[in-house]
Amino acid sequence: MSLLFVLALLTGPPVVLLVLIGPPVRGWPTREQARAWLQEPLTEQTLTAGLTIGAWLLWLLLAYTVAVRVLTRLRATVVWLRRLPLPTPLQATASGMAGAAVFGVTTNTATTTPPPPPPPTTGVSEQPERASPLHDDSAARDDGIVVSGGWLPREVAEQVAAAAALIWLRRRRDYVPRPPGPHRRQEPDTEALPPTVTAVQAALADAPAPPAAQMPADSLAALTGILPAGGLGLTGPGALPIGRGLLVTVLLAGPRHPNTTLVTTRTTLTSLLGPEAETLGRRLPHLTIVEDLDDAARIIESADTSRIVILAADDYDRHDMTHLISAATTGASRLVVLGEGPGGPTWHADSTGHLHDPSRPETPRPRLCVLDQVAATDLLTIIAHPDPTPPALSAPRPHLPPAMPPGPRLPRQTTRGKQPRPSTAPRQRLQLRILGEPTLLIDGEPLTIRRSAALQILVYLATHPTGADTRQLTEAIWPGLPRRSPTGRLYTTLSDLRSSIRTATGLHVIDHTDDRYRLNPTHIDVDLWHLHAAIQRAAATVTDTTTAWQTILDAYPADLAAGRTWPWLDPQREAIRRHVIDTCVALADTEPDPQRTLALLQTGIHIDPYNANLHTRARNALITHGDHHAATEMHHRYLRNLAHAGLDDTPHPPLDREHGTASRRQ
Q: 8, 30, 208, 557: least CB-packed within 10 angstroms?
């Protein structure tokens, strides 16, 4: 239809002009005609000629615009075709043999029993166990996650996602409630995680989980199964990216392998991480930075733990390297030299992370994690200890978005429910619930949206009342991908959502103005907007603050998009949760009834069961009430919950019976 419309615009006006008026110019005017025009320029004939020429100029402008767009699309298509991977000669041969076998099945009349099928292709050739350290089934799999800046094995990506989840749990545990206010705090512990981390989280959410029988092995075990004992040299374009991948793989596995440490020199760390090496290196657990090879050898010889040593090619001399290789071999450690390996094997590493042993070309090509500097720094940030130096100035806290935004906004969602019948008459206002399970209601019935990405976009736009442009939506819903790639998905999903709502209700709830998508507040009602309005009213209330604060609690039934794990959601969810926790504590502090105080604190604990300050306040309230046994039980239950969530790395804050607050660990 679009093509027909464009062709009609290009061919229709010229045909009409030529048939009704004729060509715009029928030769140059004569001297008499020019003299007559000067004497009387505004005649019916001259006006007709001027309008005709203007119409032809508008058509030429349209044709020029279409030609430019077509050339742009063709250029983009040519670039995409150049990047399209073509099959290698070996793959083409294998495909041809497979096709011949398939077509030959229908004509082959042989009744002999076919040979047993070959084992599943894993990239591992049938070689003896002792043939080469490259022979490793788990390492030869290409099951991984592609992000902008590299590739991660699935087990490493899952450790990234686990470390990211722990960051938000620690932030919830360490948060200290403050007086309620209408502002959202702009603090380091509410900022979004680095882009590479969110890209890994989103990729894992979209990738199907492997069967239990094919679950990836431990990342460190797979790595040590690939690297030979003693020293190994890595050359090729993938040497430095693999060095960064080794750094991330080993340090991410540190919590599961506390006896494993990565050792590297300061020079090597700088070559891998660039300017971030100095500040980031001293905050990374399970990383030992040495000045020279003698220090690395002494560390390996003096420790009973296993070590993995990474060195750059220009970071050693032959004599010191011999001593280090001997220490690594004796201590069952692994030594990786990013360059020619002195006295040991040297493998070639391509840019995709595949390893190749030139001495054994028939062996499989295992793949290691490869990262550029930006991706490696992003991933290491989530396991680094917090920077002890506080920021010089805290950024101002912006106001909450208005409860009823001035412009329309777009919701999208996938919910289970009965699809309403199409209706031409407008129904009541749509109700969008995103506090708890996201649901779009029409006359009390949930609307089923067919596309899975629609639910995420719906909640995103509901949390941004002023709207979001195409870039913001694509970066949030499909992080880590080039913008051009998910833009088509976004337009398709938005079109389907608009059509579904319009068919079911006859309402246009999605406005698109200046490349910003918004929900129309005259057609849709969002529960989060009511919560924001309650917070703003409570901040402006001077006399009856208790009632205003209670309104905030009544407007918060559950977490924002409860149960959803979208990476962009964590900062929004935590900001809202903190507003409600602040309200619980403020009500408890002004409540004269001890039982009511305890009930309010327990409400806060129900909202955030990991917050240490709330538990300490509740324990102090129980002790003040004389129920020491209940206080002890609460404390032990809280510690068990922390251990179950992986948050048992710091002791519980001690009781402060005088003030009822926890001393915060610096």
A: 208
CA gap 501, 140 in Å, rounded: 48
Residue range 117-146, pLDDT digits in tens? 333 332 323 333 333 334 333 333 457 899
> Quick one: the chain helix, strand, coil %, rounded to 5?
50, 10, 40
Same domain, 217 and 356: yes
Whole-Å CA distances, 348 to 203, 250, 340, 441: 29, 21, 10, 59
pLDDT for 649 equals 61
Could you list the residue range(s) of the whole structural domain that residue 231 is in?
Answer: 144-381
Of 526, 554, 577, which residue constitutes the final position of a domain? 526
Give one word for 515, left, alpha or beta, with left for phi > 0 and alpha for psi -120 to 50.
Answer: left
Does some domain include residue 155?
A: yes
What CATH number does the domain containing 479 carry?
Answer: 1.10.10.10
Give the CATH number for residue 576.
Answer: 1.25.40.10
C-alpha 338/C-alpha 310 separation (Å) is: 7
What is the residue-averaged pLDDT of the chain? 78
Q: Are residues 250 and 212 in the same domain?
A: yes
Same domain, 513 and 588: no
Give a yes or no: residue 416 inside a domain: no
Same domain for 198 and 280: yes
**Is 6 domain-assigned?**
no
Give the SS3 label for residue 58: helix
pLDDT digits (tens, 9 = 90+) for 636-645: 999 999 999 8
Residue 466 included in any domain: yes
196 with 262, same domain?
Answer: yes
DSSP H stretches of helix in 470-568: 470-477, 484-505, 527-540, 545-554
Specify the number of domains making up the chain: 3
pLDDT in tens, 14-69: 888 777 777 766 667 777 777 776 767 777 777 777 788 888 788 888 888 888 88
The closest of 318, 356, 337, 335 to 230, measured between CA atoms, is: 335
> Under a CB-based contact definition with an 8 Å cutoff, are residues 429 and 525 in contact?
yes
Q: Give the domain-ending residue among 463, 496, 526.
A: 526
- DSSP of 404-469: S-SS-B-------SPPPPP-SS--SPEEEE-BSS-EEEETTEEPP-S-HHHHHHHHHHHT-TT-EE
Q: Is 665 exposed, middle or buried (0-12, 13-18, 19+ CB in 10 A)?
A: exposed
Tell me if residue 196 falls in helix, strand or coil: helix
Residue with structure tokens 């590739």? Answer: 151
Strand-strand pairing, 516-519 and 510-513: antiparallel
> Count of H helices and E strands in the chain?
23, 17
Structure confidence at residue 78 (pLDDT): 66
